[in-house]
Amino acid sequence: MLPNSNEIQYLCRGTADFELLPSLPKLTPFSQQACDFLAELSSEIMKNPESRQYPDVITFGFFCRKGNVSRLKEAYQGKIENRLGRGVSFHIAPSNVPINFAYSMVAAFLAGNACIVRASAKPFRQIDLVCECMNRVFAQDRFKSLHDYITVVRYPRSKEINDYFSSLSDVRVIWGGDATISEIRQSPLPPRSIEIAFADRYSIAVFDAKAMCAAENMTQIARDFYNDTYLYDQNACSSPRLIYWLGSEEEAQQASERFWTAIHESLQGKYTVEPVIAVDKYTAACRCAIDLGAEIKPWRDNLISRIRVSHLRADVIDYRCAGGSFFEYAATDLNALRDIITRKYQTISYFGEIKDKIAEFILSNGLSGVDRIVPIGKTADFTLVWDGYDLISQMSRIIDF
Amino acid sequence: MTNLELYNNAFKEAFGVEEADLAGLEYQGIANWDSVGHMNLVSLLEDAFDIMMDTDDIIDFSSYEKGKEILAKYEKTI
């Protein structure tokens, strides 16, 4: 029985009775119905004038468009024909990335599963907007029968509700951090069920100093960087914490001034720093000055905290702070990354023609972390392979014959 | 509808512009053709012509005229 049901807010209510979910027919990966539904959802999102205000919502709508889903399906040809979804998937989306719930749901739905999605409890408009679009699509006759497969909810912390949804799950997907993973793991899964957990991870940006000095469109660069960082209060796993300037001391100095001036301009009127975050950032900067001997660049206001270190200590990441706090380091090669990269590092975003150089560095040094190297502005772009997991394969089962 | 009409309609719908504004229109040349508007344009064009555009073509699609060249690759003569 579903406990505390009055604590649950339904943003998209599929089945009226969760107990019936396990007996729903499992879908094949990239089933025609699922692909058609996503194409329709994409149109609904792209046509909605309100979506334009939210680049993350538009990006999600763009991801779901027919052309992209067909392309994704093509990439799985030969790998999905004898598969079915595992059954019921239960998703615990992160509190800080509004649109993440939707990607998690789409991956599980495309793999052939029914989805119960717990969206962030924070009242992000993006979440309601996407759910309103979904509800309009499900209201169409041809998609009514699919609605049982998708439910999106919000609820405050509740072990009882977690217990209940977990007891129905064939797949549980937890988008960290580590504390959330531990908390959700208090709720048992049925014996055959699997779990995919995305733990806390950290990311870095490597910028070619010369390229930054020569860059023509600083407005675009600032917008890209904003989408990587401030859009998620710098709390996403893929948000860079450290800016690694590749170049001489002088070049790095010049490039960073140019870069941060553009960032500062772009933040005006767009981002506000809560007083508590301003205090956290200040405290973090002071700790870095004391413990790491960091140079704290003068603050014009509370928007950007720049912490310049002259060497990268292995534990530098433990001094991190969110909401616009950045370590900076400059060198003419990447060698210092060897000292800090562990499996806790996820994404390197870059600017300049240095992608191959970074990839070669990771591979030739056999580093245990960094799974993705993407251009600035693309850190949050979702792919069906995430954090080293192939989500479609993980969330479906093979019928061997 | 002719291919040209389909093509022009996608621009008009994506950016709220008039037929007369189309010639010479460039990415970031007007406020509505930003990265968000670009995604809108691409999905409208894909729907209108029933094609799947390659990522490189989506990135190279930098003006009203350039777009015609790109669609020619998908055997859509504008």
How does this model look, in words?
The complex is a heterodimer of chains A (401) and B (78). Chain A is of the alpha/beta class and 401 residues long. The two termini of chain A are 38 Å apart. Chain A is built from 14 helices and 17 strands. Chain A folds into two domains: 5-200 and 389-398, Aldehyde Dehydrogenase, Chain A, domain 1 (3-Layer(aba) Sandwich); 202-370, Aldehyde Dehydrogenase, Chain A, domain 2 (3-Layer(aba) Sandwich). Chain A has a seven-stranded mixed β-sheet with strand order 10-11-12-9-8-13-14. In chain A, strands 1-5-4-3-6-7 form a six-stranded mixed β-sheet, sandwiched between helices. The longest helix of chain A has 19 residues, at 249-267. Chain B has 78 residues and is mostly helical. Chain B has one domain: ACP-like (Non-ribosomal Peptide Synthetase Peptidyl Carrier Protein, Chain A). Chain B has helices spanning 3-15, 35-49, 55-60, 64-73. In chain B, α1 packs antiparallel against α2. In chain B, 27% of the residues are buried. The interface between A and B is medium-sized, with 17 and 14 residues.
